[in-house]
Design a protein that fits this description.
Layout lengths: L2 H10 L5 H16 L3 H11 L7 H11 L9 H19 L1 H25 L21 H14 L3 H17 L3 H41 L14 H4 L16 H12 L1
């Protein structure tokens, strides 16, 4: 969890922390804009996600909502966790996988809330009332929880896993709200992705070996009787060569008719 990212940091320098700086400054930027009425409207129209919104519009706003701080959570206290989560993930996993894990875990919580609202109240506490659809669902907290959980599963760090998952469960018990449920969903999604990480790589490797073996089997192995050169069409369709007059039968009438012409030549 620490040694390998630190080595990558020494080797790559600050270029290995691009996502961490972008995420931290993005949250600060949107928080500063939201302090003004006009800026708050812009933030709401570009990154405000609610379960009551149409699904295509919510999916379009979800990437921006990662940088919009939640209203009920302290901004400056969460920036340190945000920076650390993205920094460790970028150094250990790479930029592409870090963005994928952050987006998938956030999207999992957003979509699951829609399912819970559709279920309605009841269902052993899993369903949610319709008015939850009007609650603003923004913030990078689900991405932070998902990244820490994924790193803990992939790197086999039980202490980090217990701290992350345990704190989310405790939060849901002490303060049950929409954010607590989404954090639990993010933890579950990150666990599934982390468990599938090694199996997915082994499956891709096995599929690659299988395709290469099939290509090798389909290749010709040589031999004189395996392939015969094709006969050219001009040769195959050429008319038969006429017999030489010297070889023709003198008793043939056609030969006698052609004989004076041959003598003239």
């Amino acid at each position: 969890m620490v040694v390998e990212p630190f080595r990558q940091l020494l080797r790559r320098g600050l270029s290995g922390l691009v996502l961490a700086f972008v995420a931290a400054f993005g949250v600060i930027f949107f928080h500063a804009i939201a302090q003004h009425p006009a800026g708050a409207t812009v933030v709401r129209l570009t990154g405000g996600v609610k379960a009551s919104l149409p699904l295509p519009l919510a999916l379009l706003r979800t990437p921006v909502s990662l940088y919009v701080p939640a209203l009920d959570l302290p901004v400056w206290a969460g920036i340190t966790q945000l920076f650390l989560a993205f920094a460790l993930a970028e150094l250990a996993l790479g930029r592409a996988r870090t963005l994928a894990i952050a987006y998938v875990t956030t999207l999992a919580g957003t979509l699951t809330v829609r399912v819970m609202i559709a279920m309605g109240p009841g269902w052993w506490g899993l369903g949610l009332p319709p008015e939850i659809g009007q609650v603003l669902d923004t913030g990078p907290s689900a991405a932070v929880v998902g990244l820490f959980t994924y790193l803990a599963v992939v790197r086999r760090a039980p202490v980090v896993f217990a701290l992350t998952g345990g704190s989310m469960v405790w939060e849901s018990i002490v303060r049950p709200n929409l954010a607590g449920r989404e954090h639990l969903i993010a933890v579950a999604a990150a666990i599934v992705l982390g468990l599938l990480h090694g199996r997915w790589r082994r499956s891709v490797r096995a599929l690659t070996v299988l395709l290469q073996s099939r290509r090798a089997d389909d290749r010709p192995t040589g031999g004189s009787d395996q392939f015969e050169p094709p006969v050219p069409a001009s040769v195959a369709e050429a008319p038969a060569v006429a017999e030489s007059p010297a070889l023709a039968d003198p008793s043939d009438p056609a030969y006698r008719a052609e004989e004076p012409r041959a003598q003239l030549r």
